[in-house]
Design a protein that fits this description.
The complex is a heterodimer of chains A (266) and B (135). Helices cover 76% and strands 0% of the residues of chain A. Chain A contains eleven helices and no strands. Chain A has helices at residues 3-24, 27-35, 38-59, 67-91, 101-123, 139-157, 161-169, 172-194, 207-232, 241-260, 262-265. In chain A, helix 1 (3-24) packs across helix 4. Chain A is globular and about 55 Å long. Chain B has 135 residues and is of the alpha+beta class. Chain B has two domains: 14-42; 50-133, Immunoglobulin-like, CATH 2.60.40.1620. Chain B is 20% helix and 47% strand. Chain B has one helix at residues 16-42, and strands spanning 50-60, 63-72, 78-89, 92-104, 109-116, 124-133. Classes of the chains: A mainly alpha (266), B alpha+beta (135). At the A-B interface, helix 1, helix 2, helix 3, helix 4 and helix 5 of A face helix 1 of B.
């Protein structure tokens, strides 16, 4: 077999583990595997596919990469993510031969989402050896990248009890401060490490222009993604709108960071 | 190094191993989604249906431990399942012990044990659930 292919799979497994281990070692995610609503998990899996296709496209080294190749990349990433998750869960004793099918599929499918993201990112670096291709990204591509970065950090935090606990215990001015700090830190990221390959988008590049175009829009993405994750993990069930908003702001902190730093993470 | 991108994985045709892995990934996604839709359709239970099976009793220096296996026969996952064991002799309750399972997922089993001072073999032992919460 081609050495590059073997190396590619090796990297993919390593990437899957690096991305998924924090989730693989979180109790709430083991439990979520069996009590998440099946349709919500199915939807998460369906949405993961275009995410992986997009990631493969983003990291593609050749502009000629076809849609079919990106689709194949996405499916390989899912296979690697799922296998890495299954092996780790079995090793931890969280699934075994007498575990019910519902629990096994739930646990593996949930963990395969971050795992496949890691696999996709690690594999697509193959052959790039130190030289990252700098590509000018379109505005929608940047927003997509922000979404992926937000999802990556959000997935780690959203299922935990801590988000809801903080949402209940933080008082109003702390939550407002968190919004301000989320925006501030986000803007610093956008400005410093940010999306520097897109100067043509903002001629003149005023502070306000950048703030609205990247930071505010990015924060909106982070909040909406937080809402989606809270809904997926059943954190909105029988919860008041106000409590949900608080939870979104709390979860919005890591997702905003993920969105702003997506250039570094992804 | 300027043209190193030529060696990248994207510039060559996918290998057989990659088609196989991709096909496997596709099957996994379709299988998982299919199963989850089936699970949703087949589900709908609003309360767990629990069954307890006594596994074995061990004599220990200061009493007896009765191992049991709890099975949830419904599509409803239960949390904080409180379990009570009552040892009766001739209609009187001699001894009562309790334990709690953090989770008893849908169609799954979990094992546990109850400690008794008296020999359970010399009476009638009943193990039954007391309460649960919706996770």
């Amino acid at each position: 077999m081609d050495r590059r292919v073997v190396k590619g799979f090796g990297r993919a497994f390593a990437g899957a583990l690096i991305f998924a281990l924090p989730m693989l070692m979180t109790m709430e995610l083991w439990w979520m595997g069996f009590y998440i609503q099946p349709l919500k998990l199915a939807l998460l899996l369906v949405l993961t596919l275009p995410l992986l296709v997009g990631l493969s496209w983003l990291r593609g080294f050749e502009p000629t990469t076809t849609w079919r190749e990106n689709m194949l990349d996405a499916l390989i990433a899912i296979a690697v993510g799922a296998i890495a998750a299954a092996i780790t869960l079995y090793l931890f004793g969280l699934i075994s031969y007498d575990t019910s099918l519902r629990e096994v599929i739930g646990k593996i499918a949930l963990q395969a989402v971050p795992g496949s993201m890691g696999a996709s990112l690690a594999r697509s670096q193959l052959g790039g050896d130190g030289e990252e291709r700098e590509r000018n990204l379109s505005y929608p591509a940047i927003l997509f990248m922000m979404t992926a970065g937000a999802l990556f950090l959000g997935l780690n935090v959203a299922p935990t009890e801590e988000v809801v606990a903080l949402a209940y215990s933080m008082d109003a001015w702390r939550l407002v401060a968190l919004v301000v700090i989320s925006l501030g830190v986000m803007h610093a990221f956008v400005y410093v490490v940010g999306f520097r390959n897109t100067p043509e988008l903002i001629p003149g590049s005023t502070f306000t222009g950048r703030f609205v175009q990247f930071t505010l829009v990015g924060y909106a993405i982070a909040l909406l993604l937080s809402l989606y994750l809270l809904w997926t993990f059943g954190r909105m069930d029988a919860t008041s709108a106000a409590a949900t908003l608080n939870a979104c702001i709390v979860l919005g902190f890591p997702t905003a960071l993920g969105a702003a730093a997506s250039r570094l993470i992804l | 190094m300027a043209k190193s991108t030529k060696d990248s994985s994207k510039s060559r045709a996918p290998m057989v191993a990659e088609w196989i892995a991709g096909g496997l990934g596709g099957l996994m996604v379709i299988g998982a989604i299919g199963y989850l839709i089936y699970a949703e359709a087949a589900g709908g239970a609003t309360a767990p249906r629990l069954e307890f099976v006594l596994q074995q009793t061990q004599q220990q220096p200061d009493g007896y431990v009765v191992e049991f296996k709890a099975t949830n026969h419904s599509s409803f996952s239960a949390a904080k399942v409180k379990i009570r064991g009552e040892l009766r002799s001739g209609g009187d309750v001699i001894e009562t012990t309790e334990t709690e399972l953090d989770y008893l997922p849908a169609f799954s089993s979990r094992a546990g044990g109850l400690y008794f001072q008296h020999d359970p073999a010399k009476g009638n032992l009943d193990i039954f659930p007391v309460s649960y919460t919706d996770p």
